[in-house]
Amino acid sequence: MARSGYEAGMKMMEELTTNAEQIQEQVLEEILGRNAGTEYLRRFLRGETDTKLFKANVPIVTYEDIKPYIDRIANGEPSDILLDEPVIQFYRSSGTSGGQPKLIPTTAELANKGAIFDTLLQSVMTKHFGDLDHAGKRMELMFTKPVIETPSGLQAASVTTSIFKKSGFRTISKLYTSPIETIFCSDTKQSMYCQLLAGLIRRDEVVTVGSTFASTVLRSIKFLEDYWQELCSNIKIGQISDWIIDSGCRNAASLILKHNPDLAYSIENICSCKSWEGIIRKLWPKAKYISAINTGVMSQYTAELEFYGGGLPLVSGFYACSEAICGINLEPLSKSSDVSYTFLPNMAYFEFLPMKKDCVTISQDQAQFDGLSRHESIEKKTNNEDTEPVDLVNVKPGQCYELLVTTSAGLYRYRVGDILMVSGFHNNTPQFRFVERQNVILSIHADKTSEADLSKAVTEAKALLDPLGIFLTGYTSYGDTSSIPGHYVLFWELKGKEGNNIKEVDPKIMVECCSKMEESLNYTYKMYRKENEIAALEIRVVKQGTFDALMDYYVSKGASLSQFKAPSCTKSMEALKILDSRVIGKFFSPKTPI
């Protein structure tokens, strides 16, 4: 970004955050002015556009509440049953965190907001890292999924696929190492191989390394561990492997792949080292940072990513979801545990439902489920149902809230599903940090274990592995009720820091991990364990590559690799079969927790 563009972007950010209250009022007035006459809002507003009437009469809703209207639009009814502006397409969520994929209407206006957001985000990044657009290329791993056409003829695609398919993206694709053909390859293995190949060929030009989520960056490193010798062979002889059969990938590779034995040898020398600590920095020595969402469910990958990054900053730049663009991290060099997002008052109308339970900031090790994550429902006992939502500028520091969004695209007082804590203000606009999620994911007998409970327990248990030089690279869970009493099962994938494949684990350590997890779970769980209403917790260690196979399964079912988040609780029987088929060890807690 040129200096003039950077200065204009930062000026806009200051104006937005200074005038947040007026801008929010204007956003809501514009939404009601357009959409008050829709079938949905007429039920509550009778055609009126008064904002006070909106807050008094329009209910707080979940996706299931508005799904019938979205389904009608997808099936061919006019979009004005929900919004005035024509729907141009649907964003399709992955469905890995909440079950079934969701269709979120999008409009031309939202696309324009996306362009403004890009300007603001790039201004912040330029402020901290300089103008990288003219310094080199970005090795951003990008993947797409086939677009689905609804009965109405409107297309449905993941947010990332939609972004990559825009004509504007093709214009800026020259900023990236990945040829456009490799991004649109439908075979993720061929796409990954060719994108890594391009990144290695241009390794001396790379100024950033990244992907949408930290898990995808790690997936690429694991892929590189398996294929670096073949990639070096391709570079050495100047010819792509025969198994790359996608014509777009082969043609794109042929344009950049030349006989270069010196480059191949230099990459071989790096990759053949016993330890891959700092491998990203070694392979791409000019990289300034690793760009990937590393908060929320992605924070479980932070330690491993730091290991491979060799000191490169991990930058979690923004907070957005299929429903709305929400905020930007104005301090991209902050630690994952300290990341706060400054909300953008021009992107949507934001409200915040105060949470009844006390809000406590969680540390980096505890923060495995903060960030860009979502839940199906939040237990009513954590909400203060007697308290009305508050506006963006009226939130209080240290208080927890559940986020509600109202957009011009037909979402009104919509529960996004994230719990946020106000960490501070930038000018007159609040900054938010994500805190533990309270949705119940495991339940046996009367015990209800939340993602927050599970996150804390896993964090404390995996600390026992650190002195052994072992990473927990992925985990998920389920409640096994096939026997009486039922018990909780955790699937853990482990990896040595020296790169060695963990074929066997010390049973004593794993039993200690089981016990540590039980000690860390809530009082109700411990009570039912003592009464033998719940059996001993079990950890099943799986082969390396198991969570890659799990990702492949979800991708085959329609999830986008760019947006995939491993589920903390697995309900799919097919997914459980994949996990169980790769178990190499089973361990149980030997004693009832105190």
Describe it:
This protein has 594 residues and is α+β, with helices and mostly antiparallel strands. Among the domains are: 137-285, no CATH class; 440-588. The chain has 20 helices and 22 strands. The strands form 5 sheets. The protein has an 8-stranded antiparallel sheet. A 4-stranded mixed sheet has the order 2-1-5-4. Strand 9 (318-320) and strand 10 (325-328) form a beta hairpin. Helix 1 packs across helix 6 and helix 16 packs antiparallel against helix 17. Mean pLDDT is 87; it is low at 358-384.
Keywords:
single chain; 594 residues; alpha+beta; eight-stranded antiparallel beta sheet; four-stranded mixed beta sheet; globular
Q: How would you classify the helix and strand content by structural class?
A: alpha+beta
Q: In percent terms, what proportion of residues is strand?
A: 15-25%
Q: Roughly what is the average pLDDT, rounded to an integer? A: 87
Report the radius of gyration as a whole number of Å: 24 Å
Amino- and carboxy-terminal Cα gap:
58 Å
- What's the number of extended β-strand segments? 22
Low-confidence stretches: 358-384
Q: Major sheet: order of its strands?
A: 9-10-11-16-15-14-12-13
Q: What does the overall shape look like? A: globular
- What is the helical fraction, as a range of percent? 25-40%
Keywords: Ligase
Domain GH3 middle: 341-437
Pfam families: GH3, GH3_C, GH3_M
Protein name: Indole-3-acetic acid-amido synthetase GH3.17-like isoform X1
